[in-house]
Amino acid sequence: MSHHYSGPDFTCPHDDARLDFCDLFAFPKPEDSSRSILIMDIHPSVSVNPERTTSAEPFAPEALYELNVDTDGDAVADIAYRFRFSPSGNGAQSATVRRAVGTDAAGTDEVGEAIIEDAPVSMGSDAQVTEAGDYRFFAGWRSDPFFYDVGGALNDFQFTGEDFFADKDVCSVVLELPNSELGAAEVGLWQRTLVPADGGGWVQVDRGAHTQQVTFVIPNEEKAEYLGGDPADDARFVESIAHSLEHAGGYTPEEARRLAEPMVPDILPYDPTRPVGYPDNGRMLTDDVGDRLVAILTNGKVTEDKVGPHEDFLSEFPYLGPPHEDRTVA
Description:
The chain is an alpha+beta fold. The chain has one domain (8-297). The protein is built from seven helices and twelve strands. The strands form two sheets. Strands 3, 4, 5, 6, 10, 11 and 12 form a seven-stranded antiparallel β-sheet that branches. The longest helix has 12 residues, at 238-249. The protein is globular, with a radius of gyration of 19 Å.
C-alpha cells in the first residue's frame, strides 16, 4: 500500500487499482477535539503502465475494505469498520458501513452492525456527505493529498521540488466519529482489502498503515506475503527490512536493525488527546512523510524533497480537496 501508482511493478493487488490502498490519516476534528477524522485513500488514478488505465468505478463491489482498530496493544483488531460498495449503476455507487467488535472484528467475515446504509459515492466535485447517528461518512473521488517529487527520487534523490501528485486523484473513505467509538484513549490503526477466495470466504490482498513502507523496504519476493499477513506477525520481517536499509543507506547491520524494529508492527498509533504528528501519533494531511522517508533511505545525506503540502484542502468535512477530474455521468 501507499505507493500511489497502479500496476504490477508496484504490487497493485490483482493488478486492480480499486483494491490498492495509498494512505491512512487520523487526527482530531479541528473544531471539536472530542471527535476524530479517519481517512483511507484508495485507488490511485495514475498508472505506471502506459497500456493500462485505472477503472472509472471508484470501489470494487466484490471487495471488502476494512479499517481496523487495536484497543489493547496486541496488534489484533478489536474493532473493525467494514465498507462494502454496490456495483455501479448509471455511473453511481453506494456504500454500506458495518462496525464489528471482538472476535468478529478479528475475523474475515462480512459481519457487524450496519451503522450506515445506502450512502452515495461522490463522483464529482461536490462532496456527498451522509450522517447517521454519531457518524459522518464520505466516499468518492478526491484530490490526492500525498505530495512528493517522484522524478527526483528516481534521479538518485536529486530533488527539484516538482510535486508529481499536484494534479492526481484518489478515492477516499472518510469517517468522522466520537473518540469513544474507538474503544480506548490510545489505539492502533491499519487498513486492509479482502476479496472472495476460491472455494468461499475471503482472502486479504492488501494492508498497511505506514506510508511507502511496502514499496521501499519490503523485498519484492516478500511483498505478497507481507500484504497478505497480519500485523501481529510482522516481527518476522525485521531482518528483511534491516537488510533493505543497509543496502539503501549504507547503515551498519546494528544501525539498520535499530531502525527496522520500530517499523513493525505496521500499525499507526493514535491518541486524540495528544498532539498529532506522523509517525508517533496519527497523521495530519499536511505531515511531510516524504521528507522523513528520504532521510531514512539516504542515511541523512538528503533530508527534503523540496515539496510541501497541497493547498486545496477543505476547512470542513471531508477535508480533502475536490478531484481534478469530474467523473459524474451526464
